[in-house]
Amino acid sequence: MTIDLHAHSTASDGTTPPSELPRLAAEAGLTVLALTDHDTFAGLAAASAASDVELVPGVEISCRLDDAEVHLLGLFADPGHAALAAELELIRTDRDRRGVRMVERCRELGAPITLAQVREIAAGAPLGRPHIAAALAAVGITDAFTADWIADGGRADVPKHVLATADAIGLVRAAGGAAVLAHPRSVKRRASVSDAQLAALASAGLAGIEVDHPEQPPEVRERLRDVAASLGLLATGSSDFHGDRKPVRLGECTTSPEVFAALRESAAGNP
């Protein structure tokens, strides 16, 4: 088995339609793929219609950990779970409000972009910063994710509704899923999740952490592997595929069959 547990489609900020992802995954040599769009299961039905690979239902939830934003993967979670679905709808609604205001701020700062252009790039998905960044790049502003523009705390950034991470873990577990913290020490993010924070999340029911990830160099991965072992957490690997939006291949990082089986067992043990 070759397993990738983190990939995005056009249902959020990826560039590949969900119906196409299973075929691309099979061509990349994968046998298992998790579709983990941001705060939505919207692409799952289209992806499930294909039989090229085993498809794991998943979602990547925007969360708050102390004063930083982190992302939590909910793997094997039931998309129809009422409480989880309601919270995801609230996050998506607020994401759109935030996106509209961020476009306004970019215009106020002199960027000649329009909301219509950004919505066209999003193609029906909830507005996100990658869509705004693509619009900025189209007018020559290629440093969108900086303090000058839309980085966290940047001049055009707007706060958004996010769940406390422990609460998100509880929702994923209640929906019959396994909670995995995505890219906790990515070199592209300002905040790095500390050992103490990982220990607290383990106590809150976290099942695993994403260790092998394209944005985490080898020395970071080894440290995370040690921390995971000490806390009894599973160490996963995945590509965080976004199609053409990131220079990452499906299956660039993978999860072992043993860890995958343990994640499935962890999910099955939740309500």
UniProtKB/TrEMBL annotation:
Region of interest called Disordered, as start-end residue ranges on this chain: 1-20
Database matches in InterPro entries: PHP_dom (IPR004013), PHP_domain (IPR052018), Pol/His_phosphatase_N (IPR003141), Pol/histidinol_Pase-like (IPR016195)
Molecular function GO labels: 5'-3' DNA exonuclease activity; 5'-3' RNA exonuclease activity
UniProt cross-references to CDD domains, sorted A to Z: PHP_HisPPase_AMP (cd07438)
SUPFAM superfamilies from the UniProt entry: PHP domain-like
Record Pfam families: PHP (PF02811)
Ranges where the Polymerase/histidinol phosphatase N-terminal domain occurs: 3-65
Top-rank lineage group of the source organism: Bacteria
Compositional bias ranges of the Polar residues kind: 9-18
The protein's name in its UniProt record: PHP domain-containing protein
Organism: Amycolatopsis eburnea
